[in-house]
Input
Amino acid sequence: MATPPAVLPAPSVRKPPPAPAEPRIVPRRKPGQWAAAAVALLLAAMAAASVVRNDAFQWGVVADWFTARSVLNGLGLTLWLTGLTLTLGFLFGTLLATMRLSANPVLRTLSWAYIWVFRSTPPLVQLLFFFNIGALYPTLGLGIPFGPEFVTVRTVNLIGPTLTAVIGLTLLESAYAAEVIRGGILSVDRGQLEAAAALGLGRWRVLRRIVVPQAMRAIVPSAGNMLIGALKGTSIVSVLAVSDLLYSVQLVYLQSYQVIPMLVVATLWYLVVTTVLSIGQYYVERHFARGATRDGLPPTPLHRARTAVRTAARAAVHRAARS
Output
């Protein structure tokens, strides 16, 4: 009888060593930043508490006068003056910027001299100068230089306090607007203009489709700062007895001697209006920043808030389902 063949033992298989665990990245601790943040938060809380608990602010008086008719009328005049002077300033500033960029040396020199004069003198001095223009020029005429005048107008009857404020602020804002517009135009790459000329595009189409959209990315931030500065700068017209927001509250506290609460009323209105303008500036900047980056625009604060609310709601639903 044949013996069965011997069964050889199976060769042992070595198990591969376990893969090393991936190292966990731990952010570096920054105790100094947290300590500085805690100190800053403590100081901010102390400042807020001192404002809220200080009876000298008279918050009840502030609430009574915040929506008073005289204050709202002054606020309306401030907004009207800001919008009118800034609009006229940018229209005139566009002309000045075009003159600065012109190849004509006479136009460049005249534009530069205008900007130099109005940026070098204080706004209050300019307003007082225009308000007293009647002492220097009692009459203004239109006619032939060094010859007869055809139309003559007395400046005393022509320029009042409100018109003086409009003229002075418009001439001032136009000098700053000219530099803002000129800087925005110069920020456009010259290579794109050369490429547009090589494609045979007209000058108006190049200006409308290439120059202006790219220049606005540099113009809008500075223009927004100019808008907010013009809003606050209109307060200097109170020296001319123009009934803007500041002059309206001044009339109230000169009669009631409630100086601090009335100044708080004006401050709060300036804060409200500048906040609204800042929000508008943010969305205008986003509009002209489209296509500037390949990754797209970051989400707005409203989108972030919606995302946070949705995430919190989903987490609450999951916790409820598990329980």
